Amino acid sequence: MVAQTDTTGTARRSDGAPPVVGVIYNPRSHRNRGRDLDIAGRPNIHVAEPREREEIRAALAQFAALGVQYLVINGGDGTVRDVLTAGLAVFGLDWPELAVLPKGKTNALNVDLGAPAGWTLAGAVDAWEQGQRIERRPLVVEPAEGGNEEPLVGFILGAGSYATGVRAGQEAHRLGAFNSLAVMVTAGWGVLQALFGSDANPWRRGVQMELRLGSDGNALPHAGAGYEGRRSIMLASTLERFPGGIRLFGALREGLKIVTLDRPGRRMLAMVPLLLAGLKLKDPDSRGLHYSTADMFELVIADEYILDGEAFPPGRYRVSQGPSLRFVVP
User: Fold this and answer.
1) pTM score of the predicted model
2) What is the CATH number of the domain that holds 32?
């Protein structure tokens, strides 16, 4: 039961047998209020509905014992983060192929992969044989000083006003805005707050943070505007496309990308919509806007950071790229 990959990135069965499929189904995800388990009774499909994070690893270990070749995650970005975090100890570097059904509120990973918004479990299983494969490496976030804490695995890490934006995005969700619309509503509101707010406004005051890039630990420079050591926003990701078509990392696309913004002047803030649309600045570093790539970096932060929509405590962290994962899309 092996899959062969041709030069176009599609896979086909060499023996015609269906894959052994494991499904992690999150019944609490935004779009899982109905059921999408019509084909769950097939003998090659195994479904787990973990209610707590602690149950996810046990479900994945059972899938590994069953020889699952195809892991379907039915949930949003937070569900993906929890499954990848739990699965790191189970699969290590040797993961089954994956598919993500976009059942959350923003579904940023699925925007990057390009799977249809209404993708179903039946559609994902059908795509295994002839679908395209897209490789992505997630971020791995772990304490820089070691310890017993489990590494976290996800795709979008942010801090500063990004954390404020996530909270505002949750409010946009309550008002009925989801996916790209929620991102655009939040971004627009954030720019207005930063433009017209005082230094006490959380969109403007920034967060004390330090970034050291690469194995050499080169400190990311600060342009000197505002308070030394504080930055307005930091984002890191390995994704290449984002909700709403925004260009978070300028011209950078592949690998681990980082963008940071020192405390900016209002003129720079007024340019944010243009920057997100792809405007290229001459010498952005001198204006406090830094685009970087690295194989890893160290983050020391005095406030919470956000990984795929959830807040985690301040501290000193090492951020690197995780295993190469193959995602199936139609």
Assistant:
1) 0.83
2) 3.40.50.10330
